[in-house]
Design goal:
This protein is mainly α. The chain is built from five helices and no strands. Keywords: Membrane, Transmembrane, Transmembrane helix.
């Protein structure tokens, strides 16, 4: 592997990491925003109000915010790494694919936190999964904007 190729791969890894860390933050903000908007709808479940206020508490209390951020990284890190590596190895640059990967990674993280979800057919759990997956769509788009548009470990031929 030439020095230029090694440099390119290192740059891609750093872009993947930066894209992921920013995408997690955007995903968490999206979760708060979606719950906030939905809580204002008529007949919204009561706990949507709590979910809309809790993220504000997370922002006001930095240690709590860091805990939620790192917990999100722990529960979404592995599947996101797998998706990112697939995108890099196959040079997948489609923004819709990255949005789908983001939604899948977020939903996967939710199942890790709430393992009984598949047996618990409570409509509120399905609403939560939808909200988390929707936030993952936003996170995937942000990841694509930062790292996914140029995905590919192989160095472009035109690079000098």
């Amino acid at each position: 592997m030439g020095m230029a190729t090694a440099k390119h791969v290192l740059k891609r890894i750093l872009m993947m990491l930066a894209g992921y860390l920013v995408a997690v933050l955007v995903g968490l903000v999206a979760v708060a925003a979606i719950y906030g908007v939905l809580s204002s709808l008529p007949d919204a479940p009561q706990y949507f109000d709590v979910m809309g206020v809790t993220p504000i508490a997370v922002l006001v209390v930095p240690p709590l915010g860091m805990f939620v951020y790192f917990l999100t990284i722990v529960v979404t890190g592995l599947q996101t790494l797998i998706f990112a590596l697939i995108a890099e190895f196959f040079s997948l640059r489609n923004f819709l694919l990255h949005m789908f990967f983001g939604a899948a990674a977020a939903a996967g993280g939710f199942f890790l936190i709430w393992p009984g979800t598949t047996e618990d057919m409570d409509p509120e759990r399905w609403a939560d999964i939808g909200i988390i997956a929707a936030a993952g769509l936003f996170a995937g788009l942000v990841y694509w904007l930062i790292a996914g548009r140029e995905a590919g470990f192989r160095r472009p031929l035109s690079a000098g």
